[in-house]
Structures are given as C-alpha cells and as structure tokens.
Amino acid sequence: MQGRLDSPLTQLGIAQAQAQNRLIRGVEATCYASTLGRARQTAQIVFGDRPYQLDDRLVEISIGAFSGMLYSDLVAAKPGVFQMPGLGWYDHAPGGEGFAGLTARVRDFLDSLTGPALIVTHGITLRMMRMLAMGWDMSRFEDLPQYQGAVQVIRDGQHEIWREDG
User: Fold this and answer.
1) Distance between CA atoms of residues 5 and 25, nearest Å
2) What letter would DSSP give residue 50?
3) N or C: which end of the chain has fewer CB within 10 A?
4) DSSP E strands: which ranges in 12-164?
5) What's the pLDDT tens digit per position in 103-155?
6) What is the per-residue burial (b if ≥16 Cβ within 10 Å, else e) of 10-30?
7) CB under 8 Å to 48, separation ≥6 — which residues?
8) Beta bridge pairs of residue 84
9) Alpha carbon 158 to its chain's center
10) Does domain 13-162 have CATH number 3.40.50.300?
11) What is the pTM of this model?
12) What is the pLDDT of residues 30-79, one digit of tens each?
C-alpha cells in the first residue's frame, strides 16, 4: 500500500505519461501537479516544456499506518476493516487522512481554480476531484472508471476519458 510513500515511475509509467503528453497537445490550461516525487516525474513528462505549479493539495490520500504494508497482510491483520464494501477502508486507516480530510483538501484546490486546468495527481485524489467537480456525493465515489495513462476530462459537469487506445 503506497499512499504518500514514493517510488520512481516504471517503464510503463513513463510510456503512459508520454501518451498523456501527446493527448494534451493543443490544450490551453494552467498546469498543476502533486508535490510527491512520482507525480513530479510524471508532470515533467506530461507537461514537457510547459510551466507547472506544485500543490500539496494534490497529494494522494494519507493511509497512515497502512503505508508500506502489503494489502494481503492488512486483510489478514484487520479483516473487519477490509470486509466493508469498496474503498471504505480508507476511513479506517490508523493515522490516515480519511475521506473527510481528502474532500476538504480537494474542494479547496478546486475552488481556487480560475480557469481550465491540467492536473497530475494520484488515483484516490483523482476520484475525489472528479466526483466533486461533477457535483456527485460520496455514494458515487467508485462509479467512474479509472485508467492509468489516460486524461480524465471534466467539462460542464460531464466526464470523458481521452486515451490513445480508444
């Protein structure tokens, strides 16, 4: 379980970031990235020569004491936490941020935007960002598909996915 721990991009991650770079060509927007190293590395590839701003509000959700542990070990050690549906365990990670903290942080970031934005962030943070931008409530948190190497576009309350493979 990674949470806010860091790791370098794999060759696949680099190829996915290169695909995103091609997908955003011609898009005029202010660029932002999470301050975590893996997002910064991704942003350098995705944005190329474009300037971008680092923002702590875009980091991944903190999973506290679960960071660095194997999912299978956590399930064995805390079966009650991982028997709840879907991603509900994020609210039960000891010392973690929880969804309330993530919601406040992401809402604050979105409220600060003054125009179109290109954003490099992380999986759970991206889910929250899309959900809030579309005006959905937490019951729909897991409804939107998530793809690595895709560009998630929210425009006028509608969601679309740009991918090179269709």
Assistant:
1) 30
2) S
3) C
4) 30-33, 53-54, 117-120, 151-155, 158-162
5) 999 999 999 999 999 999 999 999 999 999 999 998 888 888 888 889 999 98
6) eeebeebbebbbebbeeeeee
7) 21
8) none
9) 18
10) no
11) 0.92
12) 999 999 999 999 999 999 999 999 999 999 999 999 999 999 999 999 88
Give the pair of three-digit tokens for residue 139.
């019951």
**119, β-bridge pairs:** 32
Pairing of strands 158-162, 53-54: unpaired
Q: What is the C-alpha to C-alpha distance for residues 18 and 11, in angstroms, rounded to an integer?
A: 11
Place of tokens 């969804």: 99
Query: Which helix (H) or strand (E) segment is 41 a member of?
Result: helix 37-47
User: Model confidence at 166, in pLDDT bands (50, 70, 90)?
Assistant: low
Cα–Cα distance measured from residue 95 to residue 68, given in angstroms and rounded to the nearest whole number: 14
108 burial class (0-12, 13-18, 19+ CB within 10 angstroms)?
exposed
Instruction: Say if residues 144 and 130 touch (Cβ distance below 8 Å).
Output: yes
48 — alpha (psi -120 to 50), left (phi > 0) or beta? left
Yes or no: say if 42 and 120 are a contact pair by the CB < 8 Å rule. Answer: yes
How many Å apart are CA 129 and CA 116, to the nearest integer?
A: 14
The label of the residue with tokens 């301050």 reads 35
